[in-house]
Amino acid sequence: MSDKMSFIDETLNELRASGLYNEIKIIGSPQGAWLNIDGHRVLNMCSNNYLGLANNPELRQAAVKAIDEFGVGPAAVRSIAGTMSLHEQLDRKVAEFKRVEAALTLQSGFMANCAVIPALVSKGDTIVSDALNHASIIDGSRLSRAQIKVYEHNNMDSLEAVLKEDNSGRVLVITDGVFSMDGDIAPLPAIVELAQRYGAMTMVDDAHGEGVLGESGRGIVDHFHLHGKVDVEVGTFSKAIGTIGGFAAGSSRLIEYLKQKARPFLFSSALTPPDVAATYRAIELLMESGELVERLWENGRYFKSAMQELGFDIGLSETPITPVMLGEADVAGEMSRQLLKRGVFATKIGFPTVPKGKARIRVMISASHSREDLDFGIAQFAAVGREMGIIR
Ligand SMILES: Cc1ncc(COP(=O)(O)O)c(C=O)c1O
After folding, report:
1. Which of 288, 311, 335 is where one domain is finished?
2. Is 268 part of a structural domain of the chain?
3. 193: part of which helix (H) or strand (E)?
């Protein structure tokens, strides 16, 4: 009898042969500048903990207090019995932070895209999407059943050419704010201007802009002073905020509408009380001081200039995200393994996360890195880069 599931082995073997197999490391410590992997202390250069908040004592305390007062589970979807006073407070706090009328917290950034996009457009409508948009935007767009048109990455001529076409129904332009694999920033003022001219709605996914861009990390809309001009902001708490969860932010009528129409809000349970309370405290900390954001940028500038001086190709990043461009996935995989042997955890990123032939190690700088940490990381990159003939 034939094995109906043999495609699984074939696919796994192909992934191993092409260097694209994901080897998942198990971490035995909290997230921070240093981690424990397989009993070894290693420098963490690949998590999204931009501001070092994932193990912040004040967030931990807030989470413990919430468990004492509200328990550990939400026990329902938010629209049935899962909205606690904590969730309402967080919705309001996010709106205040993002300087919008209202916000709605969801279970993750991925879920936020799957919630918002199909609520705004459906069959007969048109999505206009940047070629490098995140997988969750792509999946949210596919779920909507609207036709999807892709414009060249950050290319406004290409965007205009698509907007000029005879597009059916409602038109929604979607872009990442900061592109997570390259660290470049969407030209949002031009996108908003073009969308307005052609009567399209605008949506930005600010997952890597929150905690990084704008005053105290308020994100890309604040960075470009575009308040009130972007129809929907989607975001996540899983990066700079240090916790878990996602959100949509915008006008009061948009949020009221999403509470009636967004399926992940209506059919998937709410965030847990400790998640919500820790997130609330993280946003308060950001609103109290921009110091962590400044330290993140300082660290990013220091690391990037050292890597460039060494001769590494670090792409076109405009943010602390530092892609070390290596081309083939097996080269990136080998570099990652050699770095780990030397005490640096920096994972390879290959297809389908980035296009084929554009594999890299994406270094994620954090405010929690000290100058000594960065110097250690730079020295190991230099040694491995020379051993592998990537730099001289
Ligand atoms: C642009 C973008 N949107 C959404 C997500 C998903 O966020 P979350 O981890 O909260 O699901 C990510 C995370 O990788 C992202 O980079």
Report:
1. 288
2. yes
3. helix 188-197
Ligand 1: residues with CB < 6 A are 108-110, 134, 136, 176, 180, 205, 207-208, 236, 238, 246
User: What spacing in Å lies between the alpha carbon of 189 and ligand 1's midpoint?
Assistant: 22
Last residue within a domain, chosen from 256, 288, 320: 288
The answer to whether 47 is a known catalytic residue is no
> Are residues 311 and 198 part of one domain?
no
pLDDT in the model for residue 20: 85
Residue 262 amino acid letter: A
46 and 62 assigned to the same domain: no
Domain holding 145, by residue range, is 57-288
**Cα 313 to ligand 1 centre (Å):** 25
Instruction: Return d(Cα 151, Cα 134) in angstroms, integer.
Output: 14
The b-or-e profile of 86-119 (16+ CB within 10 A means b, else e) is bbeebbebbbebbebebbbbbbbbbbbbbbbbbb
CATH code of residue 337: 3.90.1150.10
Catalytic residue among 134, 239, 304, 369: 239
Q: Ligand 1 pocket check: which of 110, 116, 232, 241 to mutate, most ligand atoms within 8 Å of Cβ?
A: 110
Kindly state whether residues 170 and 281 are assigned to the same domain.
yes
Taking only the tens place, the pLDDT of each residue in 242-275 is 999 999 999 999 999 999 999 999 999 999 999 9
Concerning whether 239 is annotated as a catalytic residue, the answer is yes
Total number of domains in the chain: 2
Q: 232-236 and 201-205: which strand pairing?
A: parallel
Asked if 238 is an active-site residue, the reply is: no
Q: Please tell me which residue in 87, 93, 208, 304 is annotated as part of the active site.
A: 208
Claim to verify: residue 98 and residue 129 sit in the same structural domain: yes
Q: What is the pLDDT of residues 117-137, one digit of tens each?
A: 999 999 999 999 999 999 999
Catalytic residue among 136, 141, 180, 368: 180
224 lies in some domain: yes
Edge-to-edge strand list for the sheet holding 246-250 = 102-106, 246-250, 232-236, 201-205, 171-176, 126-130, 147-151
pLDDT digits 0-9 by tens, 31-61 = 999 999 999 999 999 999 999 999 999 999 9
Q: Is residue 95 part of a domain?
A: yes
Pocket test for ligand 1, best of 236, 321, 364 (most atoms within 8 A of CB): 236
Our measurement of the distance from residue 313's CA atom to the centroid of its chain's CA atoms, rounded to an integer in Å, reads: 23
